[in-house]
């Protein structure tokens, strides 16, 4: 069954904890919504912290946001174990094209 929900990039970001175990055999992920156009992901207890893990999650998140209908994906890495923090933390944000569109369905300029 597909996780796809048109125009809901937050859904796939919030599914990160479920998806984590499909790709990694160490650590776990937590996710929480920060509003309609942002979400926080924490990576905890990863056995061997490495920048490649965070960079991979950043790339996956940016692509997933676009696939699920978000525009202008942005990721801010606020904590990273490879840099000495106790866990990794990423804030994903995007623009919602549905909320930004006018009555005729065309995107409005900001």
Characterise the protein shown here:
By secondary structure, this protein is α+β, with helices and mostly antiparallel strands. 32% of the residues lie in helices and 29% in strands. It is built from 4 helices and 4 strands, in the order H-H-E-E-H-E-E-H. The protein has a 4-stranded antiparallel sheet with strand order 1-2-4-3. Strand 3 (71-79) and strand 4 form a beta hairpin. The longest helix has 17 residues, at 51-67. It is globular and about 40 Å long. 21% of the residues are buried. The mean pLDDT is 85.
Outline the fold blueprint.
Blueprint: H1 9-14, H2 16-23, E1 28-35, E2 38-44, H3 51-67, E3 71-79, E4 88-95, H4 97-100
Antiparallel strand pairs: 1-2, 2-4, 3-4
């Amino acid at each position: 069954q597909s996780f796809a929900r048109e125009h809901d990039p937050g859904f796939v970001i919030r599914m990160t904890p479920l998806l984590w175990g499909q790709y990694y055999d160490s650590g776990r992920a937590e996710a929480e919504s920060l509003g309609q156009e942002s979400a926080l992901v924490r990576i905890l207890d990863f056995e061997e912290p490495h920048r490649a893990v965070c960079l991979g999650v950043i790339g996956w998140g940016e692509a997933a946001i676009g696939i699920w209908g978000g525009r202008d994906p942005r990721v801010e890495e606020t904590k990273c174990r490879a840099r000495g923090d106790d866990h990794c933390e990423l804030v994903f944000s995007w623009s919602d094209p549905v909320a930004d569109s006018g009555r005729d369905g065309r995107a409005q300029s900001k």
